[in-house]
Amino acid sequence: xxxxxxxxxxxxxxxxxxxxxxxxxxxxxxxxxxxxxxxxxxxxxxxxxxxxxxxxxxxxxxxxxxxxxxxxxxxxxxxxxxxxxxxxxxxxxxxxxxxxxxxxxxxxxxxxxxxxxxxxxxxxxxxxxxxxxxxxxxxxxxxxxxxxxxxxxxxxxxxxxxxxxxxxxxxxxxxxxxxxxxxxxxxxxxxxxxxxxxxxxxxxxxxxxxxxxxxxxxxxxxxxxxx
Length: 227
Fold this sequence. Notes:
Structural class: alpha+beta
Helix content: 25-40%
């Protein structure tokens, strides 16, 4: 079937090109984001990859689909003759990123890889909840808040509503720092303590609180913050 060329307004290829430094992201990068400097060879390679794939793929949609566990192939644009190499790449990412029914979240990195696709390059804060069953299988990834996240904003009843509906055994919460730093604030610690206490009453374990930055993340539990 013939395809017609379309462009997503969120795609880097549809935006005006800039000469800003490239952000090193686990998979793909946006064009208009400042970042830490990288060596010239890596910078040229990242630029070449971005230029090669942008005409065929909506990167913003890819991040959203990966986080929701949906089919990544739908991020491909409706144009003619998408190279087989590009289709194979997306199929590979689908296999690598999608949690399987037999796969458990056994460490913070298992979940951080998915969340960084969605949250790593945002210019605002978001607060996410990952609902897990008794075997730590991911039931749902849910964006709960957008904007400043602190102890006065996070409402326990809202956060635990979905886990209760899904009969979740545990949750992992995460929020991002648009500044790219991943140092936990006192507000982050207070929110974490509040959620742990509420989870104990509801018999839903709060396993971790992840802080996601640009190309990096930290586990508050591993750092002993709130636990």
